[in-house]
Amino acid sequence: MTLTEVVYLVDDDFRVRESMADFFAVHALRTKCFDSASAYLAHQDDAASSCLILDLELADVNGLELQRQLRGSESAPPIIFVSGGKDVATTVRAMKAGAVDFLTKPVDTCLLLSAVQSALEKDKRQRKKQSELAVLRVRFESLTPREREVFPLIVGGLLNKQSAGVLAIAHVTLQIHRGQVMRKMKAESLPDLVRMAIRLGIRPYMVRAAETGCVRTLPSARLSLATSTR
Hints:
The chain is an alpha/beta fold. The chain has helices spanning about 15-25, 35-40, 65-70, 90-95, 110-140, 145-155, 160-165, 170-185, 190-200, 205-210, and strands at about 5-10, 30-35, 50-55, 80-85, 100-105. Residues about 210-220 and about 225-230 have low confidence and may be disordered.
């Protein structure tokens, strides 16, 4: 762990914030403390790998509600809940919603440090996936409309002749578009391009539909925004 990593702490008890900040400083971790959910939301910084230690009961917003609000954000850090009491049902809800851990006060510092280490590693993996996906999206956006039509045909396993028939274009023209898709996407092989399509949420064109004539037109491939890494 390095000083570039940040532990966000949201707790309305000043003593808790102070003691945790001192504890993390000993372990070379920066801590940014907030006394409310609204204060945290107003000062989010996505530049560094981070995790969020979140008190369950806050003065303005319940911790579970804040977790719900953050769930749709790709930049939301992994959450570790802390609570003054142990409620099994609440713990289950928090964990099902993606929390890394749920600890009770007074918090065992060994368990806390272990949870933070796990959360920071999770955030690093998520950031890496998001960065890779962003690169793929840029490559996909460089494709022409026709090349985007060819993309799902390629990953669907259609032969060049079949693909050309679906698009009603010459075989040689299809080959040119196929080569451009592979080049622009920087795919080293067909399996490589298939993996990219999965990451981008692009559905492959089904061979059976093409062979039976059930599908007569082919819409351009579109990026799916349902590819969250959290």
